[in-house]
Amino acid sequence: MNKNPLTREDIERLNEILVRAGYKIPELYDASFLDRLPHAGKPQTEETQATADVKTIADLQGRLLKLATLKSQKRSYAFEEFLSGLFALYGLWCPAALSVLRANR
Q1: Which of 6, 57, 70, 83 could be bridged to 74 by S-S, CB 3.0 to 4.6 A?
Q2: What's the pLDDT tens digit per position in 17-70?
Q3: Domain total for the chain?
């Protein structure tokens, strides 16, 4: 099991990757969202620690890599599913971000 919580720095790195891939989710830049996340290297309370099993992380990684092979519309749906899985894995939910993706279809 991975006992590392999703950190602000993780989301910032994700934002950089998404921009390079041509995506931008404004809610992932929202200060109130980012401020709720722990910072890397700081000790976390039990409340803020998120755990994920290795199999789930490997599945998400495979799904993310597969996105590059899909055509535009299927890629959009698959990306939404990827984000849902990622957010669920770390106990986060950002439905507004997914509605942005749906609006851009």
Answers
A1: 70
A2: 888 878 888 888 998 888 888 888 755 454 444 455 677 888 888 888 888 888
A3: 1
Asked if 53 and 1 count as a contact pair (C-beta separation under 8 A), the reply is: yes
User: What pLDDT, on the 0 to 100 scale, is given for residue 100?
Assistant: 52
pTM, whole model, 2 decimals?
Answer: 0.46
Domain annotation covers residue 92: yes
- For residues 100 and 25, the answer to whether their CB atoms sit within 8 Å is yes
Cα torsion at 41, 32, 65, 73 (round to 10°)? Answer: 180
Exposed / middle / buried, residue 30 (Cβ in 10 Å: 0-12, 13-18, 19+): middle
Give me the helices (H) in 1-105, please. Answer: 8-20, 31-36, 54-66, 72-89, 95-103
Tokens 């720095």 correspond to 9
In a domain, 66, yes or no: yes
